[in-house]
Amino acid sequence: MAQKQSSDQPSVQELIAKASNKKRKKIIEKLIPIILFLIASVSVLTTFGIIGTLITETVIFFSRIPVLDFIFGTEWFPFANTEPQYGILALIAGTLKVTFIAVIVAVPFGIGSAIFLSEYASDNVRRIIKPILEVLAGIPTIVYGFFALTFVTPLLQQIIPELKIFNALSPGIVVGIMILPMIASLSEDAMSAVPSSIREGALAMGSTKLEVALKVVLPAALSGIIASVVLAVSRAIGETMIVSLAGGSTPSFDLDVTGSIQTMTAYIVQVSSGDAGYGTTIYYSIYSVGFTLFLFTLVMNIIAHVISKKYREEY
Amino acid sequence: MVQTLEKGSVLNKESSSIVYDTQQLNLWYGTHHALKNINLQIKENEVTAIIGPSGCGKSTYIKTLNRMVELVPTVKTSGKILYRERNIFDADYGVEELRTKVGMVFQKPNPFPKSIYDNIAYGPRIHGIKNKKILDEIVEKSLRGAAIWDEVKDRLTTNAYSLSGGQQQRICIARCLAIEPDVILMDEPTSALDPISTLKVEELIQELKKEYSIIIVTHNMQQAARISDKTAFFLNGEVVEFDDTDVIFSTPADKRTEDYISGRFG
Ligand SMILES: Nc1ncnc2c1ncn2[C@@H]1O[C@H](COP(=O)(O)OP(=O)(O)OP(=O)(O)O)[C@@H](O)[C@H]1O
Ligand SMILES: [Mg+2]
């Protein structure tokens, strides 16, 4: 076989010694982490910049409108000529109504699809359905918004005649459809990650496929599934185009889903695309709403993070 | 209930009845002929060891006995396996029913990512037992049966994965005992365990033999000799020899068996 040290050919170790440029390698090794750190800093600094701007403008807003009126007020009439009202609860109600409906639609269908894909579907079926889900996730939200306004709302009006053109129900359902692939795909990942040896253990005890899916795989993947739902909720809260197009622009603090609403995001769009002058209270109000929105999604993301850390099943 | 009656009715061990009767079994993974004309009779309340070199079809055979082998989509079988006189390949034979009677312990411990208690209670629960008191009793009895009660009795609510490998394997055995099966299949149950845990599991098998029929795959000749009543030697998907363990290890009829046992194989 190959001789380690033949006389006419240098050994591999000698070749390595000759070829490697130790000095240059050392410098590169020192420089690379610094360069990568700078690149990573860009996104971190941007984030801090955005949060900083949000906070400073929000502080200006609160120098004009009392914080408590903002937090506990239930009327949102910034455009009123005499006494503008800035009660954020009216916008939060709009956001939560849409989010709640979206979750009711997306969670059962999302988790159902995930169970089907990970436990029942053959490889071929999975290969077809997964890309379709991804396409669904890639549709621009403006298209979903149009779909809600021009297709879902008229359809719902046939069933619920008192449904207004702008309402919470239709965008809620469509936002649910929008976040469904996210829940399905992430939950499917979590369920597929459960080792097949555990499934076999359950099957060998005489479990049916459904029992394996619901009593063994689902609990084992629960942290991943909950995290996917929380992330999806966070997206629903931040969703803008669908609610702007199909939800309307009448903030109202109530539980009615058939009438026009306004969400936090839709308000920001309304003001930003209108002509609120720089320095006016309305101008600053979008920062306060944006900051509130940021807090909502931040909390959801932290919850998702904690859940996936804390309840990670050991297997 | 029915099972206990059947067991009670067998008083004389010499005339013990046949649990599994394998007749002309052939199995293919796609085109690969993995089991060839297997004929084996497995008796009640005996430990049957299956030995043979790697890839000879030992795992395939015991996975066929509870039809777990059918999880591989390309598998095709011919022949018969009579379990308690009924062919398990019959179209109307439910695999769930079969697997409720025939438990299995795997090579690598595979407890569920649940508490120790929920692991043991899993089987009884899916088969409809909900009464907490009865479940408590089953859990204690099964853990005692698997010789692990004293080690875990104070932490039944902790995750089974916090236990050592040997403890996990005994949890898996306890999980299997919880539905009081008729037969227990074991595929190299001690290959991932240290010598002390192995000894414990071996002692356990001796104990379990009184109530269960056990079929065990092992690569460890001493283990087969120590714990089994009957031994089957597999080679290239065929049964070369099947006899009392004493006979196989002292005066085997086939030269190939002798070579394998004495380590002169290949
Ligand atoms: N899922 C499968 N698909 C295709 N062929 C398989 C599959 N599982 C096993 N085989 C083949 O069937 C034959 C028997 O395998 P089996 O696992 O039963 O061997 P074994 O005797 O248990 O070996 P070991 O002692 O290594 O566990 C081998 O040739 C193997 O390659
Ligand atoms: Mg094997």
From TrEMBL, chain A:
Query: Which Pfam families does the annotation name?
Result: BPD_transp_1
CDD domains referenced in this protein's UniProt entry, alphabetically: TM_PBP2
**Among its keywords, does the record have Transmembrane?**
yes
* Gene3D superfamilies attached to this UniProt entry: MetI-like
One GO term of the biological process aspect = phosphate ion transport
Q: Which residues cross the membrane?
A: 31-55, 86-111, 132-156, 168-191, 212-233, 282-307
Stretches assigned to the ABC transmembrane type-1 domain = 92-304
Q: What is this protein called?
A: Phosphate transport system permease protein
What does the organism's lineage look like at the top? Bacteria, Bacillati, Bacillota, Bacilli, Bacillales
Automatic annotation (TrEMBL), chain B:
Enumerate the subcellular locations listed in this protein's record, separating them with semicolons: Cell inner membrane
Q: Is Protease there in the keyword field?
A: no
Keywords, in A-Z order? ATP-binding, Cell membrane, Membrane, Nucleotide-binding, Phosphate transport, Translocase, Transport
Tell me the Gene3D superfamilies matching this sequence.
Answer: P-loop containing nucleotide triphosphate hydrolases (3.40.50.300)
| Cellular component annotations (GO), alphabetically ordered | plasma membrane
What is a biological process (GO) this protein takes part in?
phosphate ion transmembrane transport
Classify the main location. Answer: membrane
What membrane topology is annotated for this entry? Peripheral membrane protein
Lineage, top-rank taxon, reads: Bacteria
**Functional note:** Part of the ABC transporter complex PstSACB involved in phosphate import. Responsible for energy coupling to the transport system.
Full protein name = Phosphate ABC transporter ATP-binding protein (PhoT family)
Taxonomic source organism: Psychrobacillus insolitus
